[in-house]
Amino acid sequence: MGGMSTVITVLNPKGGVSKTVTSIFVATALARHGSVTVVDADPQASATEWAFTAEDAGAPLPFEVVPGSAATIRRALPRCDFVIIDTPPGVAEVLDAATEAADIVLIPTMQSSLELTRAWAALDAIDGTAAALFLARAETGSTTFGLSRAALQEAAGGSVYALETFIPKREAIRQVAGVSCPTALHGYDALVDEVLAILERQQHG
Ligand SMILES: Nc1ncnc2c1ncn2[C@@H]1O[C@H](COP(=O)(O)OP(=O)(O)OP(=O)(O)O)[C@@H](O)[C@H]1O
Ligand SMILES: [Mg+2]
User: Is the residue at 36 inside a domain?
Assistant: First the structure.
């Protein structure tokens, strides 16, 4: 558990499934609720570079992005209301540390059986830590959308949640990603509300 801070780890061992976009958009939405720091545990430093680029453009992200490793996650997490940990694909040691530190693990997944297989692998790996699965880059018009939603619902139970909220595939998200401060949140605000409600129920239930 995260002590004074609520710690949300964004994790999926698969590459390119919207972990960094989710981390930055969730942090932007949470900045309306309290103080936020993003811990960038990815050696590729995508979140850190996103913050630099936004700052250079004169519209900084409304929170700090700091580098992190397995060791700093275990011993020196920032103190603020919300800590979001953006994790790299693979790298088991970082994923273990980021899972142990988390109040909840947020797992973005895309809508195909292959992608869902990776999400189930993530659930196995985090072994009992509260987890919230959601569809990122959703294409609501396609058959796999309905099938994937149903599969997520079916996987839910105990400490595993399937979020009602999904994030649509949007050109506007792609344009902001890595570059600038999100203005529109494209559903990440509703996603944050849902996650906060789960955390509240966990604390009182
Ligand atoms: N909802 C969305 N709509 C459209 N494009 C998106 C959406 N979410 C993410 N993307 C795009 O998908 C790509 C991958 O996203 P992102 O970098 O967040 O993935 P990641 O899981 O962090 O990748 P990595 O595993 O390499 O760290 C980016 O180019 C981003 O712009
Ligand atoms: Mg990333």
Answer: yes
